[in-house]
Amino acid sequence: MRPHIGVNEKNHLTIGEVDAVELAEDFGTPLYVVDEMRIRERYQEFHDAFDDYPKVELKYAYKANTSLAVLHILRQEGAGADVLSAGEIYLALKVGLKPEQIIFTGNNKTDEELELALEKGIIINFDAIHEMERLERICVAKGKKAMVSFRVNPAVSPRTHPHLATGLRESKFGIPAEEALEAYTRAMESEYLEIRGIHMHIGSQITGTKAYEEAASKLLDIAGALKEKLGLGLEFIDFGGGVGIRYEKDKPYITPRELAKKLIPIVESKIEKHGLKEPTLYFEPGRYIVGDASILLMRVSTLKQTPYKKFVGVDGGFHVLPRPVFYGAYHKAVVANKAGLRGEERVDIAGNVCESGDILARDRLLPRIDDGDIIALMDAGAYGIIMASQYNSRPRPAEALVNRGSYELIRQREGIDDLINKQRVPRRLR
Ligand code: PLP
User: Fold this and answer.
1) How close is the Cα of 287 to the center of ligand 1, in Å?
2) Ligand 1 centroid vs 129 CA: distance in angstroms?
3) 3-state class (DSSP) for residue 375
């Protein structure tokens, strides 16, 4: 069990010392529940892991979870932001981050997004040379200089789900490492581009350090070549995000401390080898910070025993938590109102989306389940509520925040009106 998760005297699951069944009753289901202290703890753990290096900044990856309360918690902790759209720039500024704390990565940025980042003074991390050329045109038109870096694809293969590997040679992200020198040379020729750093992000849910080591080493050699060949010193080296969490017992995982132990010596030796001025190291953790801080509560509606399986039907599906269906992801399932009881039957937790793939948890040994029971899917904080949709015309779920025994709603459940309130029906069709 995670430190913020427990079982009380009623055999109910608790999160942040709050009874999960009470939360489901107060706010209804499906309901995401976030533990504030767990987010703070994980942020500090990641930050402290790199204590041996003097200059480290964490840019929380907004894509993992942009609930405003979560963003405020992380701002209070001192996190900057890794953003990938105009919407995320808006959110980062809205919660009070300074432009210099924000790095705008993302791929296929629109002119409007480039203009916004330029206007606000945010670092723009190019995903392509063409993007640089487009920004330069905008800078010339506006008579304004931009702070920039390049996302470099180091062509490494972390062991993770194919959809989560972003630094493979054939991946769509970044510029190939072999073209880095050319890209930086081009950027240096422009009086409108101020080069600040270099970036990589090799994937998500990474459970070993090898690919990081290989990629970091390549990135630092590129930084060395930039210094030696172009006389260019970089202020920052951004190693991206990707540190995985332990969704499933007995599966491999790494901690930020283990990563730091491997990366810092590489950084130090390359600084020495290439005579670099000590760069600030950026990391962009998303999942590691928010992933295990949330659970998703759903109520059991229908039970079905077929000759092959028992299905436990719940009032949520992949429109609420897409990960099991998108990535075949595992989320531990707990019967929240029977949390202390022994497993007795093997069941599939079936979502309520009208698609046969909508199974949220397969073949799980759980206590005997009745209708009305509450199923909790654990570790649902990253790429959970942020990916929720209205598919099958179901309003998006609510979200509650718990903090050492107290709780409050941080996101209202959408209403039926939210299904239609942005739509217009031409008069002739009415
Ligand atoms: N940085 C970038 C550029 C990303 O695309 C992502 C997510 O894929 C992250 C950081 C965060 O990754 P994770 O949540 O695995 O830490």
Assistant:
1) 8
2) 21
3) strand
170: confidence class by pLDDT, cuts 50, 70, 90: confident
CA distance 96 to 328: 36
Contacts with 68 (C-beta within 8 Å, 6 or more apart), sequence order: 91, 94, 95, 410
Who's near 400: CB < 8 A, 6+ residues apart? 23, 27, 31, 32, 33, 34, 407, 408, 409, 410
Its pTM stands at 0.96
* Surface-to-core class of residue 422, CB atoms within 10 Å of its CB (0-12 exposed, 13-18 middle, 19+ buried): exposed
pLDDT band at residue 172 using 50, 70 and 90 as cut-offs:
confident
Is residue 46 classed exposed, middle or buried when 0-12, 13-18 and 19+ CB atoms within 10 A define those classes?
buried
Q: Residue 225 to residues 155, 228, 229, 264: CA-CA distances in angstroms?
A: 18, 5, 6, 20
Residue 204 near ligand 1, beta carbon < 6 Å: yes
Amino acid at 384: G
Centroid of ligand 1 to alpha carbon of 70 (angstroms): 17
Task: Please indicate whether residue 63, judged by its CB atom, sits closer than 6 Å to ligand 1.
Answer: yes
The verdict on whether 354 is a catalytic residue reads yes
Answer yes or no: is the C-beta of 201 below 6 A from any ligand 1 atom: yes
Please give the structure tokens belonging to residue 116: 């916004």
Q: 241 CB less than 6 Å from ligand 1?
A: yes
Q: Which amino acid is at 158?
A: P
The alpha-carbon radius of gyration of the chain (Å, integer) is 23
* Ligand 1 atom at shortest distance from the alpha carbon of 199: 3
From 231, 249, 354, 429, the catalytic residue: 354
The band of 364, judged by pLDDT with boundaries at 50, 70 and 90, is very high
**Given this model, what pLDDT does residue 295 score?**
98
Is the pLDDT score of 162 beyond 80? no
| C-alpha closest to that of 243 among 271, 284, 184 | 284
Distance CA 248, CA 332 (A): 7
